[in-house]
Automatic annotation (TrEMBL):
The keyword Transmembrane helix applies. It comes from the Eukaryota. Keywords: Membrane, Transmembrane, Transmembrane helix. The lineage of its organism: Eukaryota, Viridiplantae, Streptophyta, Embryophyta, Tracheophyta. Belongs to the sterol desaturase family. The keyword Iron does not apply. Pfam families: FA_hydroxylase. This is Fatty acid hydroxylase domain-containing protein. InterPro entries: Fatty_acid_hydroxylase (IPR006694), Sterol_Desaturase_Related (IPR050307). One of its GO terms (biological process) is lipid biosynthetic process. One of its GO terms (molecular function) is oxidoreductase activity. Its main location: membrane.
Length: 269
């Protein structure tokens, strides 16, 4: 397996320079993973398939879906891509490389784990700040235009928020200077996680059913349904920050009430 990866990586670094791989390659990878993972949830919603797994019964209008996609393409090309290009010198300065040999899986997994922990901490506080009155009204309310989220709404946000919360995603790699393949893996996992958290569906096989402290769609959907002053559930991937600071109490109470209702219904039957 490693020889196959090394051969593929040799092809990339032979035919493309560092700048092309780190900026254009990262952008292409992001767009591919984001839209390929997010578009199926639009199709599910439109067709009404797997509706028993849908968290909210409300559907978004075709106009709302089209608005989301068109704005995303605008923001990705006019904000995300320039940001990747502008941050390239910083990553190079901090030691990012694309050369062989590839890092070991131990190194890759350790760094990615660190990125998740750090991103959760930074994102939580940044997200809470965005829910203060002025910032919510002028910035974060754009993201909350979709009270019934679907996968692609995960990156639908005001350009200022893209920069603000984007810092949480890149701060870990920026201070560790990883190999580019580690950065790509982190980006793919982060995109898949945030698309899943906004997908609007809670399946039997959802990670939140098996992975302790993982938030997932049910956890984040609650955040979108409520008024900004009451929402809570500010965490990114894992929910330990909300648990530590008590900002998930409303969500946990709702889960308890639903559980009690199910038990009562079972006894009546």
């Amino acid at each position: 397996m490693s020889s196959v990866m090394e051969s593929a990586w040799t092809y990339l670094i032979t035919n493309f320079n560092d700048f092309q791989l780190a900026c254009l390659g990262s952008f292409f990878l992001h767009e591919s993973v984001f839209f390929l993972s997010g578009l199926p949830f639009i199709l599910l919603e439109r067709a009404g398939w797997l509706s028993k797994y849908k968290i909210q019964t409300k559907n978004n209008s075709p106009a709302a879906r089209e608005k989301c996609i068109s704005r995303l393409l605008l923001y990705h090309f006019c904000v995300n891509l320039p940001l990747m290009m502008a941050s390239y010198p910083v990553f190079k300065l901090m030691g990012m490389r694309s050369t062989l040999p590839l890092p070991s899986w131990k190194v890759i997994s350790t760094q990615v784990f660190f990125y998740f922990i750090l991103e959760d901490f930074v994102f939580y506080w940044g997200h809470r700040i965005l829910h203060t009155k002025w910032l919510y009204k002028h910035v974060h309310s754009v993201h909350h235009e979709y009270a019934t989220p679907f996968g692609l709404t995960s990156e639908y946000a005001h350009p200022a928020e893209i920069l603000f919360l984007g810092f949480a995603t890149i701060v870990g790699p920026a201070i560790t200077g990883p190999h580019l393949i580690t950065l790509w893996l982190w980006m793919v996992l982060r995109v898949l996680e945030t698309v899943e958290a906004h997908c609007g569906y809670h399946f039997h096989w959802s990670l939140s059913n098996f992975l302790p402290l993982y938030g997932g769609a049910d956890f984040h959907d609650y955040h979108h349904r409520l008024l900004y002053t009451k929402s809570g559930n500010y965490s990114s991937t894992f929910v330990y920050m909300d648990w530590l600071f008590g900002t998930d109490k409303g969500y946990r109470r709702l889960k308890e009430l639903k559980s009690d209702a199910c038990e009562a219904e079972g006894k009546q039957m």
